[in-house]
Amino acid sequence: MSEEHNELAEPSTADSFENPGLGHHRPRLGDEDPRAAKRSERQVVALFTVSILATIGGIVGYFAFPVAEADAGNVRMSTLVLGLGLGLGMLGIGAAAVHWAKSLMNDHEKVEERHEQRGDDATRERAVEMLQEGVADSGIARRPVLKGALGTALALAPLSFVVPLVGNLGADWNVSKFRHTAWAGTPDGGPRYLATDPTDRRIKASDITRGSMVHVMPYRLPEEEHYLEEKAKAVVIVIRVDPSILKEPEERRGWSYDGIVAYSKVCTHVGCPVALYEQQTHHVLCPCHQSTFDITDQAKVVFGPAKRPLPQLPIAVDDEGYLYAQQDFDEPVGPSYWERER
């Protein structure tokens, strides 16, 4: 094939395609009808108002349902109201900003040629002018109601974070409470049996089949002032595997019974409940951040952000076959903290 033919067959991109330019601009209804523009402004103000009311509602709910009383209903309602207030507050601001940009701000397309990242002084001055033009184009100066709604919504939105944070500054930060749980024994000095939750029925070793996982709590845990806190610390998973695959150091030989092992259900990463069990690998998984622990090897971490194994609860069986805790966990439960010691 000749060289001349090659040049004809392979034209340059610049010769093959013409710049189509910008399409014809179609004005919006609000661009031509002042009443439509005013209606859009009212809609934006309404969305900001939703954000304002949601934030205030979340804060009111935080004080109306104090979680310090350790009431399950209060905890549930406080979480629900505060979450809705925070979610709707942020959603209202976002939706208002989008609607504002689409209905009230300039929608003409503009083309800017590529240039070096650092322009000359004239270019930088022009950039500042463009920013000022953008502020003017938003129309916020001539729309005081819109400006007030925006300012109020932005000012109140952070309160959904700040109020609960400030409210917890006076909370009990005595982390030594994590060193001991209700598994240490009953008030009369007797053993603490393993029981189902919420039926509070004692469990026998024969009730747990191989390859199954059971969620348990201390039997007859007294419903006193700190009941929910003590229950949260003492939740346990009990799993039965083939005793021959358990990797137990000498000091833990008596902590399991016929392949039944018990570990804290509180993840050592950020305290989420470890609730998923994979029978083939004998791994338990925390659904929050996928920390994975090997039940056959002292619940050591095999994957994920957790840094420590799950604390083990030493268990035994009485003469009637019921499972009970020999003693408390071998170490503090839950995430690591600054005063923690093994």
The name of the CATH superfamily of the largest domain reads: Rieske [2Fe-2S] iron-sulphur domain
How many alpha or pi helices?
A: 9
The number of domains: 2
Per DSSP E runs of 2 or more residues, the count of β-strands stands at 10
What does the main sheet amount to? Answer: 6 strands, antiparallel
Shape-level CATH architecture of the largest domain: 3-layer Sandwich
Low-confidence stretches: 1-8
Strand order of the largest sheet: 4-3-2-1-10-9
Membrane topology: Multi-pass membrane protein
Biased composition (Basic and acidic residues): 28-37
GO cellular component, one term: plasma membrane
Keywords: 2Fe-2S, Cell membrane, Disulfide bond, Electron transport, Iron, Iron-sulfur, Membrane, Metal-binding, Oxidoreductase, Respiratory chain, Transmembrane, Transmembrane helix, Transport
What labels would you give this structure?
342 residues; alpha+beta; Rieske Iron-sulfur Protein; 2 domains; four-stranded antiparallel beta sheet; 9 helices; transmembrane helix; monooxygenase activity; metal-binding
Can you describe what's shown?
By secondary structure, this protein is α+β, with helices and mostly antiparallel strands. The chain has two domains: 25-167, no CATH class; 175-325, Rieske [2Fe-2S] iron-sulphur domain (Rieske Iron-sulfur Protein), CATH 2.102.10. 37% of the residues lie in helices and 12% in strands. It has nine helices and ten strands. A six-stranded antiparallel beta sheet has the order 4-3-2-1-10-9. A hairpin with a 5-residue loop joins strand 7 and strand 8 (300-303). Helix 4 packs antiparallel against helix 5 and helix 4 runs parallel beside helix 7. The chain is elongated and about 90 Å long. It starts with a helix and ends in a 17-residue tail after the last strand. Keywords: 2Fe-2S, Cell membrane, Disulfide bond, Electron transport, Iron, Iron-sulfur, Membrane, Metal-binding, Oxidoreductase, Respiratory chain, Transmembrane, Transmembrane helix, Transport. Pfam families: QcrA_N, Rieske. It is found in: Cell membrane.
